[in-house]
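Is this the right way to post structure tokens for a design question? Let me know if I should format differently. Anyway, here goes:
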């Protein structure tokens, strides 16, 4: 990432060069529409069995799309440098929510994990909030303070390590990996020697392997991943059904709404929705969706590259990397490349907290695109620098 000037605070607010990036918005809307259609077809049977309403899950998802879109729109209108003011309080709130998940009676248990918190009439997933808060904190910190030596990592480590530990404790290994890789990607943008990153692989990887080996359900997932047919009647059933779904779909799919595996896969409209897409729309359908994600993230990284200030560039890069690595993990799990873990497919999988936070992150990206030195309609690089608002 090109070097840019460091800021000492919010400073003077820049003027937008243009409106939000059309290409980024277009890819998001297409993927969102794709996801709503697939939630309808994947969740219709379960919806009817549970509520006698085939549209229950897709209507709930549509409500979250509306809420997330409103928040995203608000975030597109607030100059992104103002977000620096919330970097510190954001991680504090995030840490408090993560602690509450573990110790509070308001925590909601599901599938052996406490990942949700009930606050009055709403239910939130603090680990999703931790993603955006961690990226915002690191982008602001790296922008303001140079990180050249190991000792410069002291303050970031005071935030990163507790967040990772609390998310892992839920337990949520998938989100822990996403957060760890995102933090590493942002720290890679500093002046730290590559040697520290190479040293971190065995130093952090060794204890992680030890923890996984000594956590029965996580080690079981590794064994199931290596030989799912050995556990076909139990924990391997989800992986096997996903493989059958892809195989049944072939090149063109069995047709929209004609999936057979949605009767066998547990909650097929959530983490394993990509397998249902492979069955109903075939290889072509999955390639279209993967292509849309590739274009979305490529455009977002392009915007990050052409942001005129370091904070905006780091923020856009961190958000995009976090979403991209989450997408890669979800697709890898669905196709059997990685062991099963509870990671949603951004903008596609059913889920309120995940979708709303993702749309808020998209709102920030669209905000930054207004200041990026590119044309929102042609994609060409603009030669002029941003003028500051007096």
């Amino acid at each position: 990432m090109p070097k840019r000037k460091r800021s000492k605070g919010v400073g003077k607010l820049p003027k937008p060069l243009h409106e939000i990036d059309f290409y980024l918005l277009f890819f998001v809307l297409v993927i969102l529409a794709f996801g709503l259609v697939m939630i309808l077809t994947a969740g219709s049977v379960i919806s009817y069995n549970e509520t006698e309403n085939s549209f229950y899950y897709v209507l709930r998802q549509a409500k979250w799309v509306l809420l997330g879109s409103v928040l995203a729109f608000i975030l597109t209108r607030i100059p992104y440098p103002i977000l620096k003011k919330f970097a510190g309080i954001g991680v504090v709130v995030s840490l408090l929510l993560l602690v509450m998940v573990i110790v509070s009676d308001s925590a909601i248990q599901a599938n052996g994990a406490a990942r949700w918190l009930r606050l009055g009439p709403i239910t939130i997933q603090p680990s999703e909030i931790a993603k955006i808060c961690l990226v915002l904190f690191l982008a602001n910190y790296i922008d303001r303070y140079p990180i050249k030596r190991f000792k410069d990592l002291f303050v970031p480590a005071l935030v990163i390590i507790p967040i990772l530990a609390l998310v892992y404790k839920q337990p949520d290994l998938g989100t822990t990996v996403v957060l760890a890789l995102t933090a590493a990607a942002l720290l890679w943008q500093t002046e730290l020697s590559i040697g520290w990153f190479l040293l971190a692989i065995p130093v952090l990887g060794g204890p992680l392997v030890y923890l996984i080996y000594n956590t029965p359900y996580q080690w079981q997932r590794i064994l199931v991943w290596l030989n799912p047919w050995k556990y076909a009647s139990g924990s391997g059933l989800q992986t096997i059904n996903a493989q059958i779904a892809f195989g049944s779909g072939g090149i063109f799919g069995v047709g929209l709404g004609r999936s057979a595996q949605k009767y066998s896969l547990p909650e097929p409209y959530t983490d394993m929705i990509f397998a249902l897409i492979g069955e109903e729309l075939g290889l072509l359908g999955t390639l279209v969706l993967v292509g849309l994600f590739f274009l979305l993230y490529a455009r977002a990284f392009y915007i990050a590259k052409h942001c005129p200030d370091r904070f905006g560039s780091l923020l856009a890069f961190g958000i995009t990397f976090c979403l991209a690595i989450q997408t890669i993990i979800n697709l890898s799990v669905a196709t059997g490349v990685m062991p099963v873990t509870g990671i949603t497919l951004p903008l596609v999988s059913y889920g309120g907290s995940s979708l709303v936070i993702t749309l808020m992150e998209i709102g920030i990206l669209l905000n930054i695109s207004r200041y990026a030195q590119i044309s929102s309609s042609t994609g060409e690089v603009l030669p002029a620098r941003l003028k500051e608002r007096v």
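Format looks fine. Someone answered above. Worth noting: The chain has twelve helices and three strands. Residues 23-369 form one domain.
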